[in-house]
Amino acid sequence: MTARAAVILAAGQGTRMKSPIPKLLHKVGGRTLLDWVIDTVQAAGCEKIIVVVGDHSPGVRDLVVKRLGEAAVAVQDPPLGTAHAVLAAKAALADFDGDVLVTNGDCPLLKSSDLEPLFAQRAAGAELAIMGFKPVDGLLYGRLIMGADGHVIRVVEPKDATPEELAVKACNAGMYCADRAQMFAWLSRVDNKNAKGEYYITSIVGFATGEEKKVKVAFAPESAVMGCDTPMQLAQAEAVFQTRARAHFLAEGVAMTAPDTVHFSWDTKLQPGVMVEQFVVFAPGVSVETGAVIRAFSHLEGAWVGPGALIGPYARLRPGADIGAQAHIGNFVEVKKVKVGEGAKANHLSYLGDGTVGARANIGAGTIFCNYDGFDKHDTHVGEDAFIGSNSALVAPVSIGAGAMTGSGSVITHDVPADALALERSGQVVKEGWAARFRAAKLAKRAKK
After folding, report:
1. Cis omega (within 30 of 0) on the bond before 78?
2. Of 6, 179, 190, whose CA–CA distance to 82 is shortest?
3. Pick from 269, 329, 254, 339: which is nearest to 295 by CA?
């Protein structure tokens, strides 16, 4: 198979997003647009990937370096059009011999299978392969004008098209594939004699046809090449992603009472036999084992939920939450960086942050792991079969031994031995008749007014 490389265009200003966040760092399914495209070209077998960035978005550059290394960065400065952007990657590909794919960095729904027909056209003898699609509304897209033999003759922008050309359904998705040497030879000829004074990659189609080269189109679904230039388009891409994710998990045996209300992330892992109620959010980094039930209005992020566990309703699992088999995390319980043992229960109104809860331990309502002293986080450890009374505050660092108990309303500041009872309360004072006298005085005062 011919070697493959990819040039990802990521230097655009993204002004239509109207956000301080660079366009390509916006997310679909909890993953940045650029990460999605890098994943896709890697899955398509591109052994070398160059991302063209702009100096105006250091965050985009940082992402590329983190994922692919410094050598994967090419800088377009100033931005002078798409052909100019691809030329910025020329030096980085000087020693590469094979096909170069040019794609945009804002297509989060593009899959490697969508790219294979493009490479197949190259393998079948096309000197230039173009990705096309047939949108429901082609108002904004360049038309692919093809001859009787199916070869692409030219790309016509809508503002320059005749009524007959505007009637053409095949539109340009802005993705190209050609031999590296040929691609850069064409790009070196592109000029900027147009209204915007920019160098457009669409010009290479004319050069190829002028040389009687074979230019062929490979079609992809409209959703696959959907760009995200505006908040509306970003929301549309998110909706498509969520629809796909719901269909995937339902097909895999995950039960959902109201699928349209459940939101997933790109890396959510749910095993068959999981039950998910309505209005649940799976942020990145969640894995749920068979038989677990995630009840309504719960939010999970960076968490592992064991088999048969019960989460929610209205529970929040934060990064590092590790919920054991058959454990219960109930309504308005927040868990962060705590390993909860098998069969343990925290059924309502508690905060568990930093530490461990042993198997079969019971955490009473209103319990707080007081883990932060204003400077550092400290751990709380609750042993197996321990019983924490309601409204207890466990001031870390502290350990409650196996089988130990704390009295309701206690503030525990020292370790509690196994099987011991820890109480921390002031003595109760009872004043006989005080409430009746208080009410009488209040009523008398009101009567005088």
Report:
1. yes
2. 190
3. 329
User: Is residue 311 scored above 80 in pLDDT?
Assistant: yes
pLDDT at 402: 98
Q: Residue 369 pairs with which residues in a beta bridge?
A: 394
If one counts every other C-beta atom within 10 angstroms of the C-beta of residue 112, the result is 14
Residue pair 308/314 in contact (Cβ under 8 Å)? The answer is: no
Residue 148: per-residue pLDDT: 77
- DSSP letter for each residue of 338-375: EEEPTT-EEEEEEEEEEEEE-TT-EE-TT-EEE-B-SS
pLDDT tens-digit map of 352-364: 999 999 999 999 9
Q: Are strands 99-104 and 171-179 parallel, antiparallel or unpaired?
A: antiparallel
Rounded alpha-carbon distances, angstroms, from residue 58 to 36, 63, 203, 360: 19, 9, 30, 49
Please give the pLDDT value at position 137: 84
User: Which DSSP state fits 334?
Assistant: E
449 has pLDDT over 90: no
Both tokens of residue 37? 């495209």
pLDDT confidence tier of residue 287, bands split at 50, 70 and 90? very high
Active site residue 348: yes
* Encoded tokens for 24: 């390509």
CB-based contact 87:81 (threshold 8 Å): no
Residue listed under structure tokens 């999981």: 274
Closest CA to 410 of 425, 395, 428: 425
Comparing CA positions, the residue from 386, 385, 323 lying closest to residue 352 is 323
Distances (CA, A) of 215 to 105, 116, 176, 281: 23, 16, 10, 46
Burial class, 102, CB count within 10 angstroms (exposed 0-12 / middle 13-18 / buried 19+): buried
The catalytically annotated residue of 248, 348, 378, 381 is 348
User: 274 to each of 226, 250, 280, how far by Cα in Å?
Assistant: 32, 10, 13
Name the E strands within 134-207: 143-146, 152-156, 171-179
pLDDT tens for 187-244 read 999 999 887 888 999 999 999 999 999 999 999 999 999 999 999 999 999 999 999 9
